[in-house]
Amino acid sequence: MEHKTNHQMSKLDWDDLRFFLAVCRKQTVRAAADSLKVSVSTVSRRIENLERALAAKVFERKPKGLELSPIGESLRIRADQIESQVLGIEREVLGKDLELEGEIKVSVPAPILQELLMDDVVEFGRRYPKISLSVDTSYSFANLERREADIVVRFSATPGDTLVGRRLPDFADAIYATPSYIESHTFEGDFPTAKWIGWGDAEDRPVWVRESQFPRCGTIWSIVDPILQTRAAEAGLGFAVLPCMLGDRRPGLRRVVPEVIQNKTGWILTHPDLRTTARVRVFANFLYEAIRDKKDLVTGASYSDRA
């Protein structure tokens, strides 16, 4: 029996384990496929290859979806360990790379890249034509330990003790609407007519509204993307909490109240193993300086009342 198991294990493919871990973490084949940027059929085929190599099922098909089998549970622990070792080797090799060429994986929220940094990133490409950027603009936190990214722009009061990086200027939010919306609506009193543009809330007056300066105003619609929220406010749908880097640059918007209402702590982070990699270090410094040069915009200090 022991000989048979060893023989079977020798046929395991690390790539199959990588697909297996993605399904474990994302919980569905489709979500795993999206995260790996492959088709659903490719993920399914890889799982079948793995089960064939083990001569055992790693997932049990239940009405509610996939569940790990007992063997799958054991395999996940070992696969996590193997992944950590493989990625550690990759980071160690990459960390000794002193050349200004090759790929950098970057994770940055879409509004920051689109509205704040696109011209700077294009300029970086002109200066360093041998460096290729692979950019992820999703709002999920890329995992630096698993090399989902080499550099991330992340908003958190505590970015993690295992990462290294630099703190960015605080990113400020304020409340915006069009001048005509402000003039034609009431924001206070027992029956205000102004409406917040919602952020995917299940109730008309969620906690963030009740704790705001205009707690009696209800919400209208549900838009969870900052850029689309900005466009909706510009179109006169309602009033919105927006990053100052978006709202202050729109000539058709004005702050409902002049003060900044909240600040978010931003960081540029990388894994410690990569801080000596020339291209990672150069791009991280470039990003930091590009954002620092726009400090007045991101902190809301550049705002002038357009009334």
TrEMBL record:
Query: GO molecular function terms here?
Result: DNA-binding transcription factor activity; sequence-specific DNA binding
Report domain HTH lysR-type positions.
12-69
Source organism, top-level taxon: Bacteria
Family matches, as Gene3D superfamilies: 3.40.190.290, Winged helix-like DNA-binding domain superfamily/Winged helix DNA-binding domain (1.10.10.10)
GO biological process terms held by the UniProt record: DNA-templated transcription
Which UniProt keywords are listed? DNA-binding, Transcription, Transcription regulation
Q: Does the keyword Magnesium apply?
A: no
- PANTHER family per record: HTH-TYPE TRANSCRIPTIONAL REGULATOR, TRANSCRIPTIONAL REGULATORY PROTEIN
Would you identify the family this protein belongs to, as annotated? Belongs to the LysR transcriptional regulatory family.
Name listed for the protein in its UniProt record: DNA-binding transcriptional regulator, LysR family
Source species: Cognatishimia maritima
